[in-house]
Amino acid sequence: MAKPGPKTQPTQLKILRGNPGKRALPKNEPQPTHGFGPCPEHLTEMAKQAWEMFAADLESAGVGTALDATALELLCTSYALYREAAEQVAKYGPCWVKANGDGLPSIKFSPHSGIMERERKTIRALLAEFGMTPSSRTGLAMDKPPEGVRSRERA
User: Fold this and answer.
1) What is the C-alpha to C-alpha distance for residues 152 and 132, in angstroms, rounded to an integer?
2) Long-range contacts formed by 84-93: CB under 8 A, 24+ apart
3) Helix-, strand-, coil-residue percentages of the chain, each rounded to 5
4) Per the domain annotation, does 19 fall within a domain?
5) Coil, helix or strand for 96?
6) Does pLDDT of 145 surpass 60?
7) Treating both helix axes as pointing N-terminal to C-terminal, what angle do 111-129 and 69-92 enclose, rounded to 10 degrees?
8) How confident is the model at residue 147 (pLDDT cuts 50, 70, 90)?
9) Which domain holds residue 58?
């Protein structure tokens, strides 16, 4: 049975946010290996490209461990399905018009539009889990910004 209330945040995110609740942090929490490891061989080519892109971004931000690899795999698979469906919608359009037996047109949504919407929701949820949306990054602070990122302060 699920616990009531908001989902518990990972300790690493609490630390990055400066422990806003000021509650004691877990002392014996498992410390999985940093990094996702190699890309799974069974992914499609587009999903493999997504893996390389997302894994590089997350690892450079210091987020992601070997335990998160399955969630990253789900994100990459959903992203690849979304992209493939988007290509079909771009090619054939979001709606199909067919003539009915009575001569009136029948308008139907492309099944690819439905796939896009379903995968968009999945992608958004998984991106938020990894802190990859603007609202999920609110309140995060890094000791020093990654190289190539400009500071908000003016010199």
Assistant:
1) 20
2) 84/46, 85/112, 85/113, 85/115, 85/116, 85/119, 86/112, 86/116, 88/112, 89/113, 89/116
3) 45, 10, 45
4) no
5) strand
6) no
7) 150
8) low
9) 42-134
Distance (Å, rounded) from C-alpha 42 to C-alpha 51? Answer: 12
Residue 34 lies in a domain: no
Q: What is the DSSP letter of 107?
A: E
Residue given tokens 């796939």 in the structure block = 115
In a domain, 28, yes or no: no
pLDDT per residue as tens digits for the range 93-143: 999 888 887 878 888 999 999 999 999 999 999 999 888 888 877 766 665
User: Would 67 be classed as within a structural domain?
Assistant: yes
Indicate the pTM of the whole model.
0.73
CB 36 within 8 A of CB 69: yes
Nearest partner of 113 among 141, 90, 85, judged by Cα: 85
3-state secondary structure of 105: strand
Backbone angles phi, psi at 48, to 5 degrees: -65, -40
Give the count of domains, the chain.
1
Q: How far apart are CA 137 and CA 140, in angstroms?
A: 5
Distance, in Å, from the CA atom of 23 to the CA atom of 89, rounded to the nearest integer, reads 49
